[in-house]
Design a protein that fits this description.
The chain is mainly beta and 299 residues long. It is built from three helices and 17 strands. Strands 1-11-10-9-6-7 form a six-stranded antiparallel β-sheet, with no helix packed on it. A hairpin with a 2-residue loop joins strand 10 and strand 11.
Amino acid sequence: MNALRLLPIPALLAAAVPAPVAAQDAAYLADVAKWRTQREERLKADGGWLTVTGLFWLHEGSNPFGSAPTNEITLPASTPGRAGSFELRQSKVVVRLQPGVAGTVGGQPIVGSRPMADDGSGTPDVLTLGRTTMHVIARGGRFGIRLKDLDSAARKEFKGLGWYAVDPSYRVTAKFVPYAPPRPISVPNILGEIEEMRSPGYAVFTLAGKEVKLEPVLEAADARELFFIFRDQTSGKETYPGGRFLYSALPQNGTVVLDFNKAYNPPCAFTRYATCPLPPKGNRLEARIDAGEKTYGDH
């Protein structure tokens, strides 16, 4: 009698799969599970996207803020009624607090007034008032204040993300065709603005028997990752209507690995106060990508 027939089912399955292959698959599943857990932790963290509760565009001059409804920038009830103002003059923003209001930037108390570096600098200055933070964003020549509340309803009510089951076939090794030099491509955003971003080339691969092409962009001149913004035939159905994000390592030896099991929603899926980029024209796919993060809420 065949000895394998005497084994229980789990042992039979183990015997049927070579140990190195089984170990490799288990390691991959564990890697994706860890990545997804970390993704949720970043959303729930202090200052994560679940804490974003407001976006206020500044006008030239003084823009008062506080919890009173008469302020142009309305803060949570836990802050003073009139806390201070942001003063925008010739593309520079200065914060000024009312006497007796305690606030910090980078852990240092504000005395009088203080310039505020915007997010175009890479590391914006963050004003902290109790459990509320604010920083300056720059978009298309405009400047705004992004408000975060550590006690936001979205953070308290977060029930976790929905995902497709991990499918190793959606981890693809794509041919990478470089542009020499990198080309500017037009990337729209939800504000209706267009930003020109640099694309170093395109990735091309076969999915379900069809050729798929995606153009990544570089978020900075010294970027160490490729950033893909794409929309597919699950968008607006099982996944977020505006598309999803995916990062990959830079190409090596003419190829790039795209793991769609790690595709995820942009911040706009969690708050209406984000300014998300949308997929460029060439990244609106006819194919379905049944992998990665599913839609969340109603944003």
